[in-house]
């Protein structure tokens, strides 16, 4: 069987699992009693908040860097690695680089919250604030690659990155082989695409639902248009779901289109309410992008009765200031 154009296969996901062992955590899948009662379903929470960097991004980064070292040797990465990121990916690159003794430069737009900038800097990477969008930050990455010989680690649009995120899907199938439905935050598509590729290969009938912001949802708008389109970024509690997918997207647009069954957009109030509910009832501190699965269940009154449903809680990068803003918006 030929490899699909997007390059993400179950074999590649299992190879990623081997590479990231000992770097990224195998995170727990836990049952929420409160949510299971409320929705008359079995609601499971995949706790990517327990990764060493606080978010799922470490899986894809660790896989890509390990694969590059396997293929090209350490000399190919001697100048270091660089990326543009809304925060969690940059932190993952900084963490992985520090463990390997590699220089790292993380390019962030001025919209990225200060707590995420501080988290990257604490890992020893150099941070450069560039422009008001992720696309502008990517311009500095391109310069570092062209002029300084650094290696770019893309946040989502690469088969190695998506395969690393796909290891979540393998773990879901091992821990809940009769899973019916998974809800995943959707932005660039590396997380949903990777998870969906694993799940569809193992259990094709499983429903994969993407959840995006109500505004500035680049993948949503691109899928409607039939090709990648640019969108204006907006301020959001779910800031990790902001940014474009790249007009020259070569992997995740096709991957998401292949594996996603349904899609919902959620309002800021719904995200805020879900963040507060997860803190109050589950004692879980999550960022807005990690709460969108629950936000979709709440806001759109999705009927999941009698089903086994997993919500991927993708990260915990939320400041107390942002949490206070969520509480106010939720009326708590």
- Approximately what portion of the residues adopt beta-strand conformation? 5-15%
Mean pLDDT: 93
Stretches where pLDDT is under 50 for at least 5 consecutive residues are: none
By secondary-structure content and strand pairing, the structural class works out as alpha/beta
SSE topology string:
HEHEHEHEHEHEHEHEHHEHHEH
Helical stretch tally: 13
What composes the largest sheet?
Answer: 6 strands, mixed
Oligomer: single chain
Question: Can you give me a brief rundown of this structure?
Answer:
This protein has 332 residues and is of the alpha/beta class.
Topology:
Elements: H1 10-20, E1 29-31, H2 33-39, E2 42-47, H3 57-72, E3 81-84, H4 88-100, E4 104-108, H5 114-121, E5 126-129, H6 134-148, E6 151-152, H7 159-175, E7 181-185, H8 190-202, E8 207-213, H9 218-225, H10 252-259, E9 262-266, H11 268-282, H12 292-299, E10 308-313, H13 320-330
Parallel strand pairs: 2-10, 3-4, 3-6, 4-5, 7-8, 7-10, 8-9
Antiparallel strand pairs: 1-2
Helix pairs in contact: 1-3, 1-7, 3-4, 3-7, 4-5, 7-8, 8-10, 11-12, 11-13
Mind explaining what this structure looks like?
The chain is of the alpha/beta class. 45% of the residues lie in helices and 14% in strands. The chain contains 13 helices and ten strands. A six-stranded mixed sheet has the order 1-2-10-7-8-9. Helix 3 crosses helix 4 and helix 4 packs parallel to helix 5. The radius of gyration is 18 Å and the shape is globular. The relative contact order is 0.16. The model has no long low-confidence stretch (mean pLDDT 93).
């Amino acid at each position: 069987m030929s490899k699909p154009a997007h390059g993400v296969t179950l074999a590649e996901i299992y190879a990623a699992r081997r590479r990231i062992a000992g770097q990224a955590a195998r995170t727990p899948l836990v049952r929420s009693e409160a949510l299971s009662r409320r929705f008359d379903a079995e609601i499971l929470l995949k706790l990517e908040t327990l990764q060493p960097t606080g978010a799922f991004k470490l899986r894809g980064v660790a896989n890509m860097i390990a694969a590059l070292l396997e293929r090209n040797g350490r000399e190919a990465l001697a100048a270091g690695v660089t990326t543009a990121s809304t925060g969690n990916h940059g932190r993952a690159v900084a963490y992985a680089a520090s463990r390997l003794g590699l220089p790292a430069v993380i390019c962030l737009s001025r919209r990225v919250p200060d707590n995420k900038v501080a988290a990257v800097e604490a890992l020893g990477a150099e941070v450069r604030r560039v422009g008001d969008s992720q696309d502008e930050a990517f311009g500095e990455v391109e310069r570092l690659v062209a002029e300084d010989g650094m290696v770019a680690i893309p946040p989502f649009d690469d088969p190695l990155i998506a395969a690393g995120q796909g290891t979540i899907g393998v773990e879901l199938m091992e821990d809940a082989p009769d899973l019916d439905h998974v809800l995943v935050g959707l932005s660039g598509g590396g997380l949903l695409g990777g998870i969906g590729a694993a799940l569809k290969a193992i259990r094709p009938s499983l429903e994969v639902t993407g959840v995006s912001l109500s505004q500035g949802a680049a993948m949503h708008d691109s899928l409607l248009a039939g090709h990648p389109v640019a969108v204006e970024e907006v301020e959001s509690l779910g800031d990790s779901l902001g940014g474009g997918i790249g007009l020259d997207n070569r992997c995740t647009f096709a991957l998401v289109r292949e594996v996603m069954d349904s899609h919902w957009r959620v309002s800021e109030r719904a995200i805020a309410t879900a963040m507060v509910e997860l803190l109050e009832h589950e004692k879980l501190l999550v960022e807005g992008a990690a709460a969108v699965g629950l936000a979709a269940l709440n806001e759109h009154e999705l009927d999941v009765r009698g089903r086994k449903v997993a919500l991927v809680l993708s990260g915990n990068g939320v400041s107390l200031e942002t949490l206070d803003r969520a509480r106010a918006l939720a009326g708590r």
